Amino acid sequence: MADALNTVDMNLSEPKSRRFGLIVIGDEILSGRRQDKHMSKLIELLSERGLSLSWAKYVADDPEQITATLKDSFASGDVVFSTGGIGATPDDHTRQCAALALATKTELHPTAQELIAGRIQAMAEGDPLKADLNTPENQHRFKMGEFPLGSDIIPNPYNQIPGFSIREHYFVPGFPVMAAPMMAWCLDTYYQSLFHRENWAEQSFIVPKGVESTLTPLMERIEASFPGVKVFSLPSVGDPSKGGVYSERHIELGIKGNANLLENAWIALRAGTEALGYAIHDISKAD
Q1: pTM of the complete model
Q2: What is the pLDDT of residue 5?
Q3: Using N-to-C axis directions, what is the helix angle for 38-48 and 176-190, rounded to 10°?
């Protein structure tokens, strides 16, 4: 548990907010055969804990791409979740690539070996041939427990085949039903000291027929005048099916940051928008 202990010590002494990232690995995502569900779920898990996702990357089942991506993310100092590629089929490269990115090698983790053996026995349902750990099929299954040296185990409540963590990178399967509880476990085990540290909030309104180039100087002034507040703009060409102001071109304009900092920035943003001659449509729950 050396890596886990180092992680906890780092978190307890870390005075600033941490950045959380996501790497989704798999050709099936890039080809469109599967729709990614990991990013929306991780955003949800982080939000429930007062945290947010800083970045996400999609990577093919290509060893060079995976290794290069992991080298960069290991060097970033960010907390990173990686989904996919930790099985034992020919297109599963993540375990080996993580080792290459760290200039180390993989080795069968003893706890992973026990967990995989237990899964094999459970699935055998009393059949001595299926339960024989020395068969080629079962020996191949143990490859799923070969992790970079120094890795810790991430428990998998779905089928007991573990993921692994190293250097604040958390590697979980590509199956959302497994990945989601494993990511939640990592957050709750290693990062509770970061939960709800900031009273994060955001507010926005609709600017019918808004033009970003006209609003940009106002946005820049708000950020310069109110440090710690971010201004965002979400333009839309309109959706007739929604009706009202949403049926035509519009911009959702808003601010986000610590709730204690937003009040004056909110007043200034609204006043500045109206001073440019725009109407403001407040967003209601019905919208």
Answers
A1: 0.79
A2: 37
A3: 30
